[in-house]
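Tokens for chain A. Residues wanted.
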């Protein structure tokens, strides 16, 4: 484990922790901030020998010359980043922006739905819709009140916010799919729904809108290596076609995505991921003991 990142790469100018596993990194990269568009992603390497991980942009500030990532510490690399990435530290590599930007268009009314960690990357989309003059309904889902973040930031760009928690500790009790039903009941003229979150959540959102045929866009984050369409690892089934999330997406028609296939593919390397995390955790434990077992 690297205790100190080398003095090159891309500087982290701000770190904020939302929970014991979710944290924000604001990174100085003026060229990327200038080029970034809603819906795009980046590939991050913590250090020279690190894993390449794709992360959707949660925000970008052209005036400050920064891009923002919100990360959940679930695997070896994201947990290592949680320990290492502090203000003043540097990322070895930050590649992007990659992927096709979200098509904002000229819709009059849109519901932007984020569940869990998907709350962060839905923000650039809803901001872009609002800047285009759309009536924006933000639907945000969390497990409980303690995990809520960015609520006020969303309210600044939303005409309405529907907050959902699994346990009912804040907002309405239920999932974001229930929030969509509530929004559709009050606004039958919604033109489009955009949803980002775990595959099972996005699948549920697409099923809510399928009967009424409302355009539903989802953002997919399958297994990815190079981010340029070369490795083929990020292929997804879309109706009768095969697409690549890194170059054809990450946005796709939620009514066409084969979510069951996507979820199977996401589990493909679960054993390898588990072993990598266990090996890293053991090395960290030994380091903290000064090399003693």
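Reply:
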């Amino acid at each position: 484990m690297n205790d100190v990142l080398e003095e090159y790469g891309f500087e982290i100018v701000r770190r904020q922790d939302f929970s014991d596993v979710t944290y924000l990194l604001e990174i100085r990269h003026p060229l990327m901030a200038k080029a970034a568009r809603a819906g795009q992603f980046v590939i991050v390497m913590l250090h020279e020998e690190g894993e390449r991980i794709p992360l959707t942009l949660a925000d970008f500030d052209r005036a400050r010359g920064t891009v923002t990532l919100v990360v959940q510490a679930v695997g070896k690399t994201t947990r290592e980043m949680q320990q290492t990435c502090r203000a003043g530290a540097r990322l070895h590599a930050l590649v992007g922006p990659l992927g096709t930007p979200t098509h904002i268009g000229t819709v009059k009314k849109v519901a932007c739905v984020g569940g869990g960690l998907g709350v962060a990357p839905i923000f650039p989309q809803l901001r872009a819709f609002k800047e285009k003059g759309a009536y924006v309904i933000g639907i945000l889902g969390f497990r409980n009140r303690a995990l809520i973040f960015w609520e006020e930031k969303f309210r600044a760009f939303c005409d309405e916010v529907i907050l959902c928690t699994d346990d009912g500790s804040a907002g309405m009790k239920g999932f974001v799919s229930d929030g969509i039903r509530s929004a559709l009941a009050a606004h039958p003229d919604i033109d489009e729904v955009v949803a980002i979150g775990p595959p099972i959540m996005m699948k549920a959102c697409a099923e809510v809108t399928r009967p009424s045929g409302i355009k539903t866009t989802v953002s997919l984050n399958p297994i990815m290596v190079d981010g340029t369409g070369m490795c083929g690892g990020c292929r997804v089934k879309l109706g009768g076609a095969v697409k690549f999330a890194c170059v054809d997406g990450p946005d796709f028609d939620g009514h066409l995505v084969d979510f069951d296939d996507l979820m199977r593919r996401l589990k493909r390397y679960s054993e390898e991921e588990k072993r990598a995390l266990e090996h890293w955790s053991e090395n960290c434990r030994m380091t903290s003991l000064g090399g003693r077992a």
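The chain has three domains: 10-98, 100-219, 220-270. Residues 40 and 93 are 17 Å apart (CA to CA).
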